[in-house]
């Protein structure tokens, strides 16, 4: 059974990183443990590590030591080859690769970068390594600076070179192709490739071509005066500030890099002021040329500003600096989160390796891993691009999550709040929010405001609500967002980063209402443990549920579990297992279990049962040997909120588990509540599950 694939390229700067990142994400969505290996890496300066390895291991959290992820540096390889030790080279590479095969279900192998002594030597080396590892290959070629014939011709030669050596080529990627030529490239590849070889074309993406400030500092050997924490800022373009300020400001574009002599205080201060102004684009940084540094009063003024971009001093003159910046070949670093997300977004949009992977591997993963679960969530959300409203539009965490969500293009986002305030927060926190990709709604000035007021009045007038009260409530973002869902103007809502749970849920209970046959709104967390995903309920809503309410929570949680691809095996948790325990609390759990059995005899359920007996196979077998749930429970129902909330947080902190949720269940339309201590990742994941709920699961 094949356990690996080799990514090979034809030349330097082919952009194979985008293929490696995208393929790694695809693989992690298909199988539990994926390793990463580079037979040959470039020589590094000092103690720096290979950028490709650092980026992949870090971003995908792969449990692999850096030294185990490669075999040789380029100089080590050349020395051994010159000493006639080619056999030793291959033996070492094969040994290290086989060690990874033993540790992982699948291994992604990435070829060399073509920055060594010669392209022909490196290409032949990659063919030889792939052949000796017995791995199929994905070929990547760049369209930059090439005609159609040159690109297709080089890929055809490369394909022939591999296949003539009995190396299977499973896919060919024409990368960095102008968007208008994508179909031409794919058609040209299909003309000479057999049907079993997958054909892809990826467009040239300007954002990936531009360097970060950190790359520019390294290239120019610059000295960072201010803004060290923003060195990963992505440049969009660059321009020289040599004219008067009033003229230069008109030339600023989004993420401009300002290059100016260090004594031009007017340009420096003007650019910094433009950066925090809502009337001008954001700049990425300032390069001060000629070894000149602003005078002390100017430095003191800059130091006191609330918002500072990287300001870097370099010795070279403006002309030289501009040319050198223009010649930088940008890379993707582990800290370049924006570039990584862009790469993954472009890959997801243009490339589908799903069929290729299905042919490539025939693995049956043991359970659902967190990475597989998250990958599956994003795939499902993308099948129907739902509209999610985020009422807390001025919370920086909400805006950062919105950036990630719109970049992946799997949901539509509406932010509630005043446009100017949202812009201000984005600028203050250096959040690259593209307001062309999200909708910003100020409830009070919205075209729907009066209609919403009238609707709310009609729905609640029996509760002594008059028009003035209705107008006050509709000015509240939680009520306005919920009304958007009620009226069909949005598919779901996520709130709670800055509001209480009650504030989020109350309007939903007032007019979204519960599903037919459901009387209890409850919640679940998807607890992504190392080797499985468990469903915890209810850890967020109901303080002391009755036996009937516990039964309803269990049934709702089982349905949620099933809807998200997890077979429900329900454990009704208590301080005792089976019939041994006595007391009001354990009797309530026992009664709830019997109610579930009578209402849903199709569900596998055990209760009362202790946590360890529910999840540990050995303990479960010893305490309840005849149970089909003990030791393998996937849905764990806690007897009260105190127990559930503390347990999920303890498991999360002690095991490093990812807790996705809470996801509310029982409402007619999806409204989900965040913790006020939520992270950007929490918001991102909650929006994704809300979008899936909105698909009508």
Automatic annotation (TrEMBL):
Q: Which Gene3D superfamilies match?
A: 3.40.50.10950, HprK N-terminal domain-like (3.40.1390.20), Isocitrate/Isopropylmalate dehydrogenase-like (3.40.50.10750), P-loop containing nucleotide triphosphate hydrolases (3.40.50.300)
Per the UniProt entry, the Enzyme Commission number(s) are 2.3.1.8
Q: Which residues form the DRTGG domain?
A: 215-325
Which family, according to UniProt? In the C-terminal section; belongs to the phosphate acetyltransferase and butyryltransferase family.
Q: What does the record note on quaternary structure? A: Homohexamer.
Q: Show the NCBIfam families listed in the entry.
A: PRK05632.1 (NF004167), PRK09653.1 (NF007233), pta (TIGR00651)
* Record-given protein name: Phosphate acetyltransferase
Q: Which organism is it from?
A: Leeuwenhoekiella parthenopeia
The gene for this chain is: pta
